Amino acid sequence: MKFFNTAGPVKFDKHYCLPPLERFNLDEILKLIGQEKYFVLHAPRQTGKTSALLALMNYLNREGEYICLYVNVEKGQSAREDVERGVFSFLAEIASRARDFLDDRFPVDHMKDIMELWGPDSALNEMLSSWTKTLSRPLVLLVDEIDSLVGDTLISVLRQIRAGYDKRPAHFPQSIILCGVRDVRDYRIHSSKEKAVITGGSEFNIKAKSLRLGDFSRVEVQALYQCHTEETGQAFTDEAMDEVWRLSAGQPWLVNALAYEVCFEMKAGQNREIAITPEIIGRAAEKLILRRETHLDQLIDKLNEERVFRIIDPMMRGVDMEQKVSQDDIQYVVDL
Asked: What span, in angstroms and rounded, lies between the C-alpha atoms of 220 and 17?
């Protein structure tokens, strides 16, 4: 039996899900790639970013106009501001994924020599340049969790990508998509080397556009839940769907977490002959809150950020904003 997914990318054979490529404007992304643009895709955690990127990689490789590789650079977070470790981790991820998904051993066979010869501040640029020249079709690189990199490591990665921009598409990736929780313009990067805070916008001024992966629409929530109904016969009442929408506003993790709690964890919901009611949905929401689920718990940490606090605090207290807040701060909170 399939189930509602609350962790990691969706798998069509295991999870109820919506087609990932329908979560964003595929025509717009293909246009940007065709125009050799570098751009950003961002959204809050557990909204389907990785699922969408993996689906895009498979689509592009299947269509045959480009060679596309997805890489996840989250492992480089542990390097913190050790640029050598962070860049080497990025190279290792490219090498591993190229070997496993493209059956291409060039990165794994050359990464050590490139690192030793060019050093951490040029190795990523040189790897992408040298590898691209060996490929039969233009390269599209999808970089996930880019904002997990820290300080000078992130600065080095962004600068090396920017430095190769003019060499595309023959000697550098035709298009690169940077994916993370935040838009690159909102990066506030503390550089130990430069003793300064550097903004992501200045480090990645080749960005053509920022795309946000949106929440589910009400129609999409109903379509997702209908997958469960079709497989099991268990229905959600109209009132239950109203309550799901009221509680989640279509946020994908919440939509899936509520349904999983109701249909697979709560005893009442495990009886497929019983329709799901708003009362059951409400009890499921309380259980998620009381368990301090990871993604809910992370919201508390975000309140420590001044630009988040000054928007959320008056909302929580039910009072007017004490000071005028910038639209950039409001958009930042929406993005998170």
From this structure: 10
How far apart (Å, rounded) are the C-alpha atoms in residues 6 and 315?
28
Which tokens hold the place of 75? 């492992």
**Average pLDDT of span 226-236:** 97
The tokens describing 142, both together, are 């999808």
Cα separation, 78 vs 69, whole angstroms:
23
Tell me the β-bridge partners of 3. Answer: 15
CB 174 within 8 A of CB 139: yes
Strand, helix or coil at 279?
A: helix
Q: What is the pLDDT of residues 20-51, one digit of tens each?
A: 999 999 999 999 999 999 999 988 878 899 99
Of 5, 13, 16, 331, residue with least CA distance to 182: 331
292 dihedral zone (left: phi>0; alpha: psi -120 to 50; beta):
left
- Dihedral pair phi/psi, residue 293, rounded to 5°: -50, 145
d(C-alpha 133, C-alpha 121), whole Å:
20
Which residues lie closer than 8 Å to 125 by C-beta, 6 or more apart?
Answer: 118, 160, 161, 163, 164
> Mind listing the pLDDT tens digit for each residue in 261-314?
999 999 989 999 999 999 999 999 999 988 887 777 777 778 888 889 988 888
With 0-12 CB in 10 A as exposed, 13-18 as middle and 19+ as buried, what is 222? middle
Q: Which residues contact 227 (CB under 8 A, 6 or more apart)?
A: 2, 16, 17
Pairwise CA distance, residues 45 & 147, whole Å: 12
Instruction: Output helix, strand, coil percentages for the chain, rounded to the nearest 5.
Output: 55, 15, 30
Give the single-character DSSP code of 73: -
Q: What's the token pair of residue 259?
A: 């349904």
What six digits make up the tokens of 167?
Answer: 């060499």
CA dist., res. 35 & res. 288, Å (int): 44
Q: Look up the pTM and report it.
A: 0.86
211 strand-pairing partners: 41
